């Protein structure tokens, strides 16, 4: 995959970075932890500009977040509540919990989107609850852009400084992404297993 990513950046430049970061949000096995440091390394060689690399990465990432946002909007709060009422065990949430979660997102959604963009794995998933909560698109875009510029810029800057050792960024962040994903899966399994008891304790 590394050679494929390197070839796209070499052949397409900024457009290739935008395309890769778009696909990273749609197809998670393409990791930004490799794309952006590699792009930073290319900038360090003088073939691209570091600011342009950051902007291209941000643009692709934000565009890739939009399908998840609109999927949340399309599903909608009422349909989600109906699903929670019928299939709460598998959604691991009751309608009342969903109300609280959406209310919290309405009050703090901007911060959640901004900081969520800085966390591996979460940075893609955070778009869905933003859509559920019907966060206004301009607000969603502003916070997504700020968070994504920070994420893309830091990764590109790391690759710029490390140059030929840019892959060490992925070496450090890869286990973090895996740990977060495992934590999400384990939390989901725990909620499914304990769901009847949790519901009963609230009655």
UniProtKB/TrEMBL annotation:
Membrane topology label: Multi-pass membrane protein
Domain VTT: 30-160
Transmembrane segments: 12-30, 50-71, 140-160, 172-193
UniProt cross-references to Pfam families, sorted A to Z: VTT_dom
UniProt GO cellular component terms: plasma membrane
Name this polypeptide is given: DedA family protein
Keywords recorded for this protein, A-Z: Cell membrane, Membrane, Transmembrane, Transmembrane helix
Main location: membrane
PANTHER family: ALKALINE PHOSPHATASE LIKE PROTEIN (PTHR42709), UNDECAPRENYL PHOSPHATE TRANSPORTER A (PTHR42709:SF6)
Localization of this protein: Cell membrane
